[in-house]
Amino acid sequence: MASPSCSNRLWLALGAASLALNAVLVGAIVADVDVRAKLGSLLREETSTAPNNPPGRWQRRAADTRAKNDESLDEQMRQLQTIGYAAGSQNAPEHSDVTRYEPELAFDGLNFMVSGHAPEAVLTDMRGVVLHRWAREFRSVWPDYAAPKRGLNDQFWRRAHLAPNGDVLAIFEGVGLFKLDARSNLVWAKQNGAHHDLFVSDAGEIYVLAREAKLIERYDPRAPILEEFVLVLDAAGEERRRVSVLQAFEQSDYAPLLARMPRSGDVFHNNTLEVLDGSLADRSPAFRAGNVLISVLNLDLLAVLDLDAQRIVWALTGPWRLQHQPTVVDGGRMLVLDNQGLGEHSRVLEFDPFSQQIHWSFSGAADAPFFTRTCGSVQRLANGNTLITESDGGRALEVTRDKRVVWEFVSPHRAGSRGELIATLFDVVRLAPDFPVNWAQASERR
Questions:
Q1: HEC profile for the chain?
Q2: Which of 133, 155, 330, 377 is most deeply packed, by most CB within 10 A?
């Protein structure tokens, strides 16, 4: 495969509108073929046609494996369910907190963030002054959780969402979603396999990525797989809808993409969820309001899931690799954080999802590179600036259209056995300056 940085790299534009606009079709897709049945036949190892014998030796072996290795398989699934991230991975820098701020060019507001240093979220102003803090340890949420022997991500929250009344929704990676009030009192907790990202609609519905470790014999009869879901919950956290992303691919015209998927383990690693507002629906019905934009990291793929049809209706690969946080922005475009498309440098791309034209990018400067191997997020601000979270480096920066850094925050929090690492800064969200904070503790405001 050609290097992603080469100008001649093909963009595989697989959405219905993209196919009409010079897209490259991945695989031979025939509308009247039962794709799921065809896929199943490709995955089976046909070795026996004897009477009373199910076709495929893999089915019988899977049953034997479970019978002999129940404990081992259960532990494999517990480990897989809770895979996550290190609290820190890079040496701590000398300077921290807000290291650059140009008020006349930056978008004024509040910063809501989660980090690898502790199971908490913090709200600060533009100068880094802490306005409020929420904290809740894992065992105070799920005291009876049967943890794997190693690898449970119980030392920090992976992502959180702040409501105007001070309530917070937060994720312990791979375990579940819980809600706190403004004083960190536990309101409810759902052990639903939530991970990475969530989205709250104006009507109060909660959309969240979830996963479940299970043995799916048509992929691997011996090793478990993480099946990914999009869950829709009501405001009380009760599940109202569950859609399998794996089945949505299998039942769609994009099933051939699964040939690139690993056959066991963390096969998709979905990391982003955004409910579409319909702003691109005039260009493609795949982008109608209510459909969900997701990022499939292990396939370097962006996709749109129709929750009603339970099918993938659009998909796109491009010059990015192991990407995070695709989001629709004004002008009919998308932003995405390209973690490793340039190798040891990251970048943010603004592009047209149908013509694939890149309209803007940011990759740092030669003397100030921008790189996060894992995680990261990107947000287009109301003034046209872009807020970028460089997770591994524990840094967030705001850049203008002419690529000038006008605000920079370096986490003061530390990780590692001796505090030698900067804590992973999983996410920073800029809130509007008029976001209500009357519930914030007076002592912390001072």
A1: CCCCCCCCCCCEECCHHHHCCCCCCCCCCCCCCCHHHHHHHHHCCCCCCCCCCCCCHHHHHHHHHHHHCHHHHHHHHHHHHCCCCCCEEEECCCCCEEEEECCCCCCCCEEEEEECCCCEEEEECCCCCEEEEEECCHHHHCCCCCCCCCCCCCCCCCEEEECCCCCEEEEECCCEEEEECCCCCEEEEECCCEEEEEEECCCCCEEEEEEEEECCCCCCCCCCEEEEEEEEECCCCCEEEEEEHHHHHHCCCCHHHHHHCCCCECCCCEEEEEECCCCCCCCCHHHCCCCEEEEEHHHCEEEEEECCCCEEEEEEECCCCCCEEEEEECCCEEEEEECCCCCCCCEEEEECCCCCCEEEEECEECCEECCCCCCCEEEECCCCCEEEEECCCCEEEEECCCCCEEEEEECCCEECCCCCEEECEEEEEEECCCCCCCCCCHHHHC
A2: 377
